[in-house]
Sequence to fold (382 residues):
Amino acid sequence: MNITIKEITLFHVAMPLVREFETSSHKKSFIEHILVRAVDREGFVGWGECASPSDPYFCYESTETCWLILENYLVPSLLGATWETPSAAMALGHVNGHPFAHAAIEMSCWDLYAQHLGQPLADALGGTAREVDAGVSLGIEASIDALLDVVALHVDDGYRRVKLKIAPGWDVEPCRAVRSTFPDIALQVDANAGFENTDSSTNVFERLDALGLLMIEQPFHQDDLVAHAALQVRLDTPLCLDESITSIEAARTALVLEACRVVNIKVSRLGGLGHARDVHDFCRESNVPVWCGGMHEFGVGRAANLALASLPGFLFPSDLSGSKKYFAQDLVTPEIVAHEGRVVVPRLKPGIGVDVVMERVEAHVVRMSQHYAEPPRRGETQ
Ligand code: MG
Fold:
């Protein structure tokens, strides 16, 4: 199979969140992601989503750096080139780092590739699950009472697991309150690397260890695998790494050091679906369970995450809630919906399996740019 992309359009889209979201690193009230629309010579349309946070707090990338890398490097390298697989497509335009920008364009290549195969993306990736267990990730709240209200809302909605964001000063007490109010729920916490590697931090995690948590995610700085390994031996609760797992090499190092017992796989952080699948395969061979993390994706990225999470090593509930938790109306149809704590993997048609509603994109677009393998002829609009 030979695929040649003749046209790529980038859309910088900003949508308000239905509820402000706060973590140990920052607070956000809207999401601005870049959508990639790639059209090939046969007329297939592939979509990708760059899920970088607006500003460089979670990682060094931002919407602006992603726009620059996509526009100046990744889009020009792909236009007009012929490739057979998404990994071959990405080899055409390698730049050092910038995984969120890479992931966006790679996702559009996977969408095209799966359509050429005539398969849903999940099948093209080797996924088997028909549905994925949905977990919900809840931000830092103004008070413990407010947190308990939000947890109750999502437990009533049937979510299979609740994850609480924690930060120094918002750690043991809110978690203890949630655990005593909801003694039976699957509960885990995420520190987003917000703690210093000190004795007092270790004490916080030892007290959290007594709460019967599913896992404790990313306590320390992403580069400090040794600190995570030292903490893991003191705890019964498995540590999970997120920000630290930037590549298959980082995953190997983390497992060799026994710095975690669970891995959070994010398509964006790993630079695309192919690398995310590689980390999944490696963890599965190593008997380390994984789950799929999210970056508050719109429907395009959310559908791709669902396809990935249908692979057999995804053994814990993933951050794949229904779109309505985040947005009044998502950009795609059918909207992604959680029902009794499960989300169906899109398989109704080849590719990512959802349609982007252009009127909704246009209603929220901040800027767009179009790029052609050859300049459009007079009278040609796209
Ligand atoms: Mg995380």
Remarks:
- The pocket of magnesium ion is lined by residues 190, 192, 217-218, 242, 264, 293 (CB under 6 Å).
